[in-house]
Amino acid sequence: MTTAIETRGLTKQLGDVLAVDDLDLSISSGTVYGFVGPNGAGKTTTIRMLVGLLSPDAGTALVDGTAASNRKELTDTVGYLPAEAPLYDELTGREQLQYAAQFRRLDDGDRVEHALERYDLVDAADRRVSGYSTGMRRKLGLAQATLHDPPILILDEPLNGLDPGATRTVRELVNEVSDDGTTVMISSHDLATVESICDQVGIVSDGRLVADASPESLSASVAEDADLEAAVIELTDQ
Ligand SMILES: Nc1ncnc2c1ncn2[C@@H]1O[C@H](COP(=O)(O)OP(=O)(O)OP(=O)(O)O)[C@@H](O)[C@H]1O
Fold this sequence. Notes:
By secondary structure, the protein is α/β, with parallel strands linked by helices. It has helices at about 45-50, 70-75, 95-105, 110-120, 135-145, 165-180, 190-195, 215-220, 230-235, and strands spanning about 5-15, 15-30, 30-35, 60-65, 65, 80, 150-155, 185, 200-205, 210-215.
């Protein structure tokens, strides 16, 4: 099995904080990987290094075998959704996706219409993004991040602030793209959802990886009837 994402000794200091501390990650292709841990554990900082938005102080990050700093080469390979979706408020939802399609030189107009349907945004497609709710913005952000069908999808807190319906949409998307062989890395505090969709979960605390295994093994490692939430609390000393 090939490795989609690999870090060795990844380290980043931000101000006085050692945000990521000698982190070794290995995510096999096709895995749905949950990246969890307390507030301030270093998840976003790690992800920003994986998508080439931050340079590590030490260590290496490879995405699809290419240095993560090489953003240009990874444009077609990676779909990335940050916690705040990068959207233009003055555009309509449809225009936003058309803009993203042009940026990526995707000439297929059907792709945009298909994405609007897939994310249940057809009725809102001609409204300006400035009037979208949190869930609608997230869905549009996801539509944008997946427009080019990237083989690797990195989602930073995609479930934050979503109602159950929108959470289900994200869950279904992850299951769907995973069935097609896409590798998905997803950081989240919604541990029940992570438990239900992820094959493997990495737990970070104070910038370090404290555990990395299937949700079932992590739960079983703390108690017979434990769930992932109990495991995360136990393993991160919360
Ligand atoms: N620009 C910055 N300057 C100084 N410290 C920072 C900066 N950005 C993040 N940090 C610190 O780095 C650490 C890791 O932050 P990071 O955002 O990666 O954590 P996280 O696991 O994503 O947290 P959360 O779950 O709350 O989003 C935290 O202690 C945070 O306060």
